[in-house]
Specification:
Length: 163
């Protein structure tokens, strides 16, 4: 009985001591032994400095396609492009509802929506419109490990996590 207890304890001790080696958290400071730094390294952002939306861009994915996410590590910028549909071309708009960054998990979230324009008048057309957009997230340094984008249009909702 004591031998089993001793062997079980030894197995836990060996497993615990190997845990850090198996997940790539020790060694050269890269994720999975590759060239990309692991989360929490000094070149990961500590804050989201700016989030801007530009409407009417060329070559964006269509309204029935998921948004596209691109990372520019050197410029510390993440770009999201897509197209969102909304009701009423006279009263609707595409808007950046939310852009946040959680430095502890090195994760950014973006939500782009089609909504009623708060400054539109009362008489709205009864049609569906769509507009393409580009959201640029600017960080203090580097880019986050992940970006989750939610695109909420009149007919489609997409949730994309990149990379």
């Amino acid at each position: 009985m004591n031998r089993r207890t001793l062997l079980a304890g030894a197995g836990i001790a060996v497993t615990s001591s190997l845990g850090g080696c198996l997940d790539g958290s020790l060694g050269d400071g890269t994720r999975d032994g590759g060239d990309e730094p692991a989360s929490g390294d000094p070149d990961r952002p500590t804050e989201l400095r700016d989030a801007t939306i530009t409407l009417g861009i060329d070559d964006a994915p269509a309204a029935d396609e998921p948004p596209r996410v691109a990372f520019d590590e050197e410029a510390s910028v993440v770009t999201v492009e897509g197209t969102v549909s909304y009701s009423s071309s006279s009263c609707g708009e595409v808007a950046l509802k939310r852009a946040t960054y959680e430095p502890g998990g090195s994760a950014a979230t973006v939500r782009v929506v089609g909504r009623r324009d708060p400054e539109a008048g009362e008489e709205c057309t009864d049609d569906i419109a769509a507009d393409s957009y580009r959201v640029e997230l600017t960080f203090d340094m580097g880019v986050p490990d992940t970006v989750e984008v939610t695109e909420d249009g009149e007919f489609d909702e997409f949730v994309v996590t990149a990379p």
